[in-house]
Amino acid sequence: MEFLSYLISGISLGSVYAIIALGYTMVYGIAKMLNFAHGDVIMVGGYVSLLTMTSLGLPVWVAILLAMVVCTILGILIEGLAYKPLRSAPSLAVLITAIGVSYFLQNSALLIWGANPQVYTPVIEGAVKLFDGQLSITYISILTVVVCVVIMIALTIFTSKSKMGKAMRACSEDKAAAQLMGINVNKTISLTFAIGSALASVAGILLCSSYPTLMPTTGSMPGIKAFTAAVFGGIGSIPGAFLGGILLGIIESLAKAYISTQLANSVVFAVLIIVLLVRPAGLLGKYVPEKV
Amino acid sequence: MDRFAHKRGKLVPLPSDSLVPERDLNSAPVLETRHLGIEFGGLKAVDDFNLTIGKTEIAGLIGPNGAGKTTVFNLLTKVYQPTKGTILINGTDTHGMSTAHVNRIGVARTFQNIRLFNNLTVEENVKLGLHNHIKYGMAGGILRLPNYWKQEKIAHDKAMELLSIFDMEHLANHKAGSLPYGAQRRLEIVRALGTNPSLLLLDEPAAGMNPSETVDLMENIIKIRDTFQIAIMLIEHDMNLVMGICEGICVLNFGKVIAKGSPEDIQSNPVVIEAYLGKKKEGE
Q1: CA B63 to CA B66: how far, in whole Å?
Q2: Beta strands of chain B (E only): which ranges?
Q3: How many Å apart are CA B257 and CA B280, to the nearest integer?
Q4: Chain B hits for A181, Cβ within 8 Å
Q5: Interface contact flag, B128 A157, Cβ < 8 Å
């Protein structure tokens, strides 16, 4: 019973990682860059939703919607101002810019909202009790898993069946050829950032509802773990991000319960290293050897 | 050599510097370049390139290796921005336009090295060509509103119709990367046609094909021109193909046009022969 409870909390945590990982994996797939500022968009989403609920006193759904809108705009702005001018620059320059944007967001948040942790009001409270109260599952963890699955399915259908999704996959394979099909590559990349950032805000709300403290650095650790999850599952692959996220959440939760709370992160990254040694492209990634 | 003569377009007189001496004067040229050129750090890869291609004309661009033929294609599709001169597509100046924009106003191309989206299916590749002709928004794509189904149905039918040109409908659900070489080349042409071009640029369409495949390709190029009423410009080293179907030929050497004219003119042009075979020694 105890195991089941840890497993469920692991799946719930993993769902949050999976939603964040989707943002990493989509941006990597299309723009071939690691957007390290992605984790900090989560934090912005958390603050926007919290302030809408507490300072403005508006209902939860308005808070969620507003957080998504703000983060979507933020994502498009980050891409347009920081990454677009570097489209043809070496990937290291883009990587360093991404780290810069990440610190810029953290420090802006520090300036605006202060360093003190704020208590987040969960979007839903309460829990279901099963087996005569031996097992209690919070509504928020059920919601997290459901939202994650819905997003995962919607995104898979969107990228595989819609014309924008096809344009995304085409850009990911060959940008020049896509342009010659009349596809606006810049617009497609912006769209990817918009979707990724909207998802990050949702992840932020779900994460803060489960772990209700919010500070400017809230997004960075989950961001790095979600990135790990994306690599773990095979970066560039949407089902890979999902699988990687869930597995990472479960491993972390079980490691916390049975090994040591302090060592949980070490265990997570040790597993990552082992997986990458065996399968360098990740669980669902395809390893394409370079042609000589 | 001339068994395709009867399939060529009906020729009437044309403006001064066009390739074909005769053509419908009333229709505006599909492509017009004036003093087009590009320099790569002082090297004039293409210089003073003037060319007019009429509606439904099949034009050939030939020249020795490194003459700048593919560079011309890259200029016309704005993969490179020209450093000099003007390109008019259907009378529209393409100055400052992006590659995607030039495609939308009517220029499509294939590549010397096949560049299909290998992980996508054949049908999806063609649908990407149709990208700008499928009309539904973001919400429609996610929520799959009625308009989504309607538009996707139209796109599917159109894709199948285009694939039927080369009898490739049965391959629709195969991954593009898994097709045999010849089929990949044909799919590239189909995908380019999907963008509804008025000018189709084919970069070495017969490369790697055997003689019988090449003959099929020649018939298909003419069929495409007749069916879609478009102009086609092709780069090719296979002289049987070029002389067989091109109505006008432009010869490029070291980035400069050294000759223009009908296949007959080009074949007997001493400058062209020299560019290909080298100068005759005196007394030979």
Answers
A1: 8
A2: 31-40, 43-53, 58-62, 84-89, 92-93, 107-109, 199-203, 231-235, 248-253, 256-261
A3: 21
A4: 103, 128-129, 131, 191, 194-195
A5: no
> Is the CB of A173 less than 8 angstroms away from the CB of B119?
yes
Return the ∠ at Cα B112 (arms to B108 and B118), rounded to 5°.
80
> Has residue B23 got a pLDDT over 70?
no
Q: For the residues of B189-239, what is the DSSP string, one character each?
A: HHHHHHT--SEEEEESTTTT--HHHHHHHHHHHHHHHHHHT-EEEEE-S-H
User: Strands B231-235, B199-203: parallel, antiparallel or unpaired by DSSP?
Assistant: parallel
Best A151, A162, A172 member to test B by mutation, with max B CBs in 10 Å, is A162
Q: Is the pLDDT score of B13 beyond 50?
A: no
For residue A116, give how far its alpha carbon lies from the nearest alpha carbon of chain B (Å). 39
Give which of A156, A124, A121 is closest to A137, Cα–Cα.
A124
What sections of A174-237 are H helices per DSSP? 175-179, 185-210, 220-233
Segments of chain A scoring below 70 in pLDDT: 287-292
ipTM metric: 0.74
pLDDT at B10 > cutoff 50: no
For the stretch B121-133, pLDDT in tens is: 999 999 988 888 8
Size of interface A-B (CB pairs under 8 A): 84
Number of H helices and E strands in chain A, helices first, is: 11, 4
Which of these, B72, B64, B66, B58, lies nearest to B30 by C-alpha position?
A: B58
From the list A158, A177, A184, the residue facing B142 with the nearest CB is A158
Distance separating alpha carbons of residues B21 and B247, to the nearest angstrom: 9
CATH topology of domain A2-278: ABC transporter involved in vitamin B12 uptake, BtuC (1.10.3470)
Question: Under an 8 Å CB criterion, which residues of A touch B?
Answer: 154, 157-158, 161-167, 169-170, 173-174, 176-185, 191
Cα–Cα distance measured from residue A198 to residue A20, given in angstroms and rounded to the nearest whole number: 10
pLDDT of the residue at A287: 61
CA distance B127 to chain A (A): 8
Determine contact: B109 vs chain A, CB below 8 A: yes
DSSP state of B121: B
Which residues in chain B touch residue A161, judged by CB atoms under 8 angstroms apart?
A: 141, 144, 152
Q: Are B129 and A181 in contact (CB < 8 Å)?
A: yes
Q: Residue A118 has what pLDDT?
A: 85
**CB of B63 closer than 8 Å to CB of B275:** yes
- Beta-carbon separation of A183 and B100 below 8 A: yes
pLDDT at B149: 87
pTM strictly above 0.90: no
B99 shares contact with chain A (CB less than 8 Å): yes
Q: In this complex, is the C-beta atom of B118 within 8 Å of any C-beta atom belonging to chain A?
A: yes
From the list A29, A73, A85, A82, the residue with the least C-alpha distance to A195 is A73
